[in-house]
Known about the structure:
Blueprint: H1 11-20, E1 22-26, E2 29-33, E3 44-49, H2 57-76, E4 88-93, H3 102-115
Parallel strand pairs: 3-4
Antiparallel strand pairs: 1-2, 2-4
Helix pairs in contact: 2-3
Amino acid sequence: MLPKQYRLKKRAAFKATYKVKNSTHSGGVTLFAGILKKEECNTKVGFVVSKKVHKRAVKRNRLKRLMRESYRLLLKENKLGNSQKYLSLIFVGSTSALDKDFKSIKLSIEKMLERI
Length: 116
């Protein structure tokens, strides 16, 4: 599980990140990046899969778990690239990502983190 200091929790933080409109998309996952950091602190990360993507909570939670674990492994390997310049990141899963396996989700997240 992702350590507590890296989690994005508050509704206002999610809204502020969406408001910036800095996003990229790859393999059924969209990444929204917040504002650039002014001081040294941890980048907060949130994972979202809407109820419109699939009505079953089991499917939505599985996709969130896959995205969270792939980000955690990239954090452990220090392969986050330019993403550490941002205050917050939000990964949003879509319908096309529901059928993908862990390897493809991790690859798409890695591509997006290099791109921003």
